[in-house]
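pasting for ref
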Amino acid sequence: MPGRLDTQLLFGERDCESFVSAQAYADHVARFNPALAAVDPAPGRPGLQVKSAFLRLPTLQLWHTVASPLRIRFGTSGEPVVVLMIPLGGSMRARVGRRSLSWGRGSGGLYLPETSDLLETSASGANYLAMGLDLGQMRRAADAVFGRPDGRSVDLQLGDARLLPSDTGGGLPVDAMVRQLGRLAEVYGQDPQFLHHAGLDDFIHRQLVPLFRPDWRRLVDGGASRPRHSKQQAVDRLCDIMRADLSRRFTLTDLATMGHMSVRSLQYAFRRRFDMSAMGWLREQRLDAAHRCLRGRDVDKIESLARACGFGTASHFVQQYRQRFGETPGATLARSGATRAEPAWREDA
């Protein structure tokens, strides 16, 4: 039966938190979603059983919960965080003012801004992935996805609680995105900084944006009429910005915003110019810079070189370097004629 506690979590099953106290669960979730006011067993239920796993990134919070029937009450937090709940089993009903919204597996999700006041599961219990979204990041993602038609940002109607579609017909379907998220969180959940550096939170916000505007096809592409030479000049400026600080974290949303174009136009412009994506071009520049440092013996620790060249972790850097140059960074350093032993140089970092 959906929602049973023997249902495996998408991520963090081995280290998940388990609760039999509604207050303890409420206190725990409030660290991730300050708008949560209280949690109670559903009416007529003697107690509560919950297991949940959490992952927090700078602009994205994830928590997968499997629970017995419960009721959740929301308040206001004063923080720019709203919640999207993706059903994985069971069904739920939300009361927003005088409206009642019901949703279950197969739905795209239930979007709850801070005005929502009650969420209640069905008799089958709860099994959902909740995403704490950053309002500012959502608006930046909308500009990156849709451009700015008529010079204005597209209104995502972020103040309205509603059910979202499961597939916009062009983006990543919600269920596929959830599975992908679960795999990434399971593998890299102990290193959220790497996931942030890799742009996971930016990617998720961009994938979600079309769900808020099912009419997105008529909005895209806001930069399609821009002259070709103007896009080429924008690409040149972006390349200069990225080369000037390879250690900086760049996302597609960042680049689209700086280039005053949509992500779609940005990717098309880079492929036309370099026959590769914008992030692929940036990765090549970072690897080339690392290669020059190694050949010039201008290197100390592998972690320092990885950070200076914009890689999230040393192990990720070594993997990417080997794929590009056919040897490890240590082998390149040895061929450069380096004579001093560097005990801090380890490629299994």
